[in-house]
Write a structure and sequence with these properties.
Length: 836
């Protein structure tokens, strides 16, 4: 048969075989990878016995095709491995990963080194092979495979943190182990040993290079998906292409680690891309990648496991002994890091404490898998590696991988159970029972309604209802036995629910197109930290986090400075419009949360707790409303523009839903729908552009608001206008500082300021039409008080030299300023009299 057809038959046959395994694994409660490995080995044995025998038919051809299938490690390394790593990294919750980054890095990088050296030295004691070969073996077995472990965790409902720790570790340690592997393989084949220092530097360069390439590639993809937005096929294709491009770019052009680049790019895409890639596409993207990852993992496992019987045929008693040495050394190294180094980290305050039971599971769950097998295969195919070393590595790695899979993998489930990690905490159990009781009540009502609608016989319905009543009774009984939840706990539970719900609502508004991406970026990502604060400090933690964006950021101050100093308006305009949008989004979500608390949480947590939660939400709402009305007062026109934009987005959404409904009812064809969608997209893009806020002032118009100048003739106003400069002061900003030299005076065109006079108990408030900062200019002394903006203030600034020129020409004005200054000096402050 033709070569290529043989290959197609082999691969298709394997895929067909793989498709039966997940249901089998679920049925017999064995980790999928363990089953995969077992089937692979069995298949390998069958091939060894029957391949080459005379015969015909598809099954015979299939076996022959597998026997002849030239599975090169290159295919596994360059085609399947990047996919597998990208998929694993994409599924990781990057924020959670960073919460535990210290222990994860310790396990990923330090543990890889410890394992490499422990295994390397231990094995070298028992063989005549060189140390570098033994270290290479150590690096290959240092990478852990989370697939089986995570599968078990998911089945048993193990804690989220444990999952993140294991997932994060195995993700980054693959990268570290492969980088180390490449380095050691290079040393072994080139025979050029540049010393430990050089090797360490090379490792760092590979790793850092990979991170940089991956970061750039991930960022570029996030940028590129913008133009192809709402085109799932294109967006997903872009991520697939990116994976290989990042890999090749790093590996062949930069000379850095390709796998590190792939992992980094996936982490960037999973954290930043989530808001760049359209939400519907994100779901599809995860789906496609899960599928690709499943294929890659299955193929790596099967293709390498098939080779096992042939390899093991060479193995003797000595190899069995060495596998035991590898196993003992690898687990001892892991134990040392987990129980020796990790507590030091927590002790030094670098990481949260990891409990002993978590550590025990992490130790026992250090299974090895696809990556180790692929690397071992790569060694066996490298012609520059001495044949003895090839055989040695192949047998020991495969042996060790299978020991971990069949012994640790098979016993991990009972261990987790023994350590009670699959049980809910008392608080969680109490919540579970409350939720269950509520839903039972609900369902009972609904069951009766359904029975009435479909006219089901009363006898049948009664049986059903009694069953629900019994369950309800059982739950009630259990609830009576459990210790009542403390108020503190109930509030914390409520806050945790609210924080999660808040994030969900932002995403919901974002996916509906009401909240823009820029705003989403700002709001998302707060929840992780907020959750931690709530979990550790309860309600105080929540309060400490209230609306941090209400305070003016450094960026805002910088933008305001640019506008004031150099008349550059764009950055301030952008900042202010973002602020406006954020405030509107937060206000909407807070109102929804209030309703949610009243409707749902009150029943779950009790009226008293709901009341307290509502109080906190109302407090936040008050702050937001205040900030919003301040902005509306300041920029009434712009507020209208932004509100129009909100309504516009909602209208587009409704329009889209309408078109889709018409398509579903076959009123319009797919072509017409696509045409309408294209047009909608154009309008949506136009709305996405942030409208610019005009913060430029019309100085002549502002001058008229100052009573001092109001009565002056037109030409005097225009000469004064030429001397004055407009400036916006932000709420809380100190405009004049006590003790400084005076270089200007100010007129308040709108807003209010407070003067903090040192010997007055209360600050003096000045409003529209008032002026300040005149005293220092008149007396040439230093400023005698702080002046602070109470809200947004439009000010007119008169520089010192212009002030002098003005009062020289106009003695009336001079005596007016002097009179006011004198009155102020006399205390209390006098309102400014009109100029004669
Ligand atoms: P100057 O000293 O240049 O800077 C601080 C300003 O605060 C001062 O000018 C006055 O304009 C203003 N100021 C000081 N004392 C009072 C007061 N008692 N009432 C109102 N304004 C005052």
């Amino acid at each position: 048969m033709h070569d290529i057809v043989i290959h197609v038959l082999g691969v298709a046959g394997l895929l067909a075989l793989v498709s039966f395994l997940p249901p089998l694994a679920a049925r017999f409660q064995v980790p999928f990878t363990v089953l995969l490995a077992a089937v692979g080995v069995a298949l390998g044995a069958v091939i060894q016995t029957f391949a080459g025998m005379p015969g015909a038919g598809p099954f015979h051809d299939f076996l022959n095709s597998l026997a002849e299938l030239d599975i090169s490690s290159e295919v596994l390394l360059h085609i399947f491995l990047p996919v597998l790593l990208f998929e694993t990294a994409l599924a990781v919750d990057v924020r959670r990963l960073f919460d535990d980054i210290a222990p994860i890095l310790l396990m990923a990088v330090v543990a890889v080194f410890v394992c490499t050296f422990a295994v390397g030295y231990a094995v070298s004691l028992f063989t005549s092979l060189g140390l570098v070969s033994c270290l290479l073996l150590g690096a290959i077995v240092a990478s852990t495979d989370p697939a089986a472990v995570i599968g078990i965790f998911r089945d048993l409902g193990a804690p989220r943190r444990l999952t993140t720790l294991v997932e994060g570790e195995s993700l980054l340690n693959d990268a570290a182990a492969i980088a180390l592997f490449t380095l050691l393989l290079g040393m072994l084949t080139r025979k050029a040993d540049g010393g430990a220092m050089m090797a360490a530097l090379e490792f760092l360069r590979d790793f850092a290079g990979g991170v940089i390439v991956g970061y750039i590639c991930g960022r570029v993809v996030c940028m590129l998906v913008e133009p192809v937005r709402n085109q799932p096929m294109a967006e997903i294709t872009l991520t697939v292409a990116q994976t290989y491009l990042a890999y090749v770019l790093a590996e062949h052009y930069v000379g850095a680690s390709g796998v590190v680049a792939v992992v980094t790019s996936a982490l960037v895409i999973s954290s930043v891309g989530r808001t760049r890639i359209s939400p519907t596409t994100w779901g599809a993207l995860e789906h496609v990648w899960r599928q690709l990852g499943f294929w890659a993992n299955s193929m790596i496992f099967l293709l390498t496991a098939i080779l096992v019987p042939r390899l093991m045929a060479q193995a003797g008693l000595e190899e069995v002994g060495l596998v035991l040495v590898v196993t003992a050394a690898a687990f001892a190294a892991r134990g040392l890091v987990l129980f020796g180094l990790l507590p030091l980290f927590s002790w030094a305050g670098l990481s949260q404490r990891v409990s002993h039971s978590y550590k025990a599971v992490m130790l026992w769950g250090g299974l090895r898998g696809a990556v180790s097998l692929t690397l071992a295969l790569a060694v066996t195919e490298n012609v520059r590696v001495p044949e003895r070393v090839q055989g040695f590595i192949a047998v020991l790695v495969t042996g060790f991988v299978f020991v971990t899979l069949f012994i640790n993998g098979a016993t991990l489930r009972p261990l987790i159970h023994l350590l009670k990690l699959d049980r809910l905490s008392p608080v969680e159990r109490a919540m579970r029972n409350r939720a269950l009781a509520l839903s039972m009540d609900n369902i009972r009502d609904r069951v009766s309604a359904v029975a009435r609608t479909y006219e089901v016989d009363a006898a049948v319905t009664d049986v059903m209802l009694t069953r629900y009543a019994d369950r309800l009774k059982a739950i009630d009984l259990e609830r009576q036995k459990e210790a009542p939840l403390r108020d503190e706990d109930r509030v914390t539970i409520g806050l945790v629910i609210l924080v999660n719900r808040e994030e969900e609502l932002y995403y919901a508004h974002f996916s509906e197109g009401v909240v823009s991406r820029a705003v989403m970026d700002m709001l998302a990502g707060r929840s992780g930290r907020l959750l931690d604060a709530v979990k550790t400090q309860g309600r105080n933690g929540y309060r400490a986090f209230e609306e941090p964006f209400i305070a003016f950021s450094v960026w805002m101050r910088g933008a305001s400075w640019l506008q004031r100093r150099f008349g550059i308006h764009a950055p301030l305009a952008r900042r202010l419009s973002m602020r406006f949008e954020v405030l509107v989004a937060v206000r909407t979500v807070l109102r929804e949360l209030l309703a949610f608390t009243r409707d749902k949480l009150a029943r779950l947590l009790g009226d008293d707790v709901a009341f307290e939660l509502e109080g906190m939400l109302v407090g936040r709402l008050g702050i937001v409303e205040q900030a919003l009305s301040a902005m509306k007062l300041q920029y009434p026109d712009y507020a209208m523009v932004l509100q129009g934009r909100y309504v516009g987005r909602a209208a587009l959404r409704l329009e889209h839903a309408d078109y889709r409904a018409m398509r579903a009812e076959s009123i319009i064809s797919q072509e017409v729908l696509s045409d309408l969608e294209r047009e909608l997209d154009v309008r949506r893009r136009a709305l996405e552009r942030l409208p610019q806020l005009d913060v430029r002032f019309d100085v002549a118009e502002l001058i008229r608001r100052v009573p001092l100048f109001a009565g002056l003739p037109e030409e005097r106003v225009s000469t004064i206008a030429a001397l004055l400069r407009a400036r916006l002061a932000l709420p809380g900003e100190t405009i004049v500082r006590r003790g400084e030299r005076g270089d200007a005076m100010f007129f308040v065109a709108s807003g209010a300021v407070e003067v903090l006079v040192p010997n007055l108990a209360e600050p003096v408030k000045l409003g529209t039409g008032d002026f300040f900062g005149e005293m220092a200019l008149l007396t040439r002394q230093r400023r005698n008080a702080d002046v602070r903006a109470m809200g947004y203030c439009q000010l007119l600034v008169l520089d010192a030299k212009d002030f002098r020129r003005l009062v020289q020409k106009d003695p009336n004005l001079r005596s007016h300023f002097q009179a006011v200054a004198e009155a102020r000096r006399q205390q209390p402050a006098q309102p400014a009299p009109a100029v004669s």
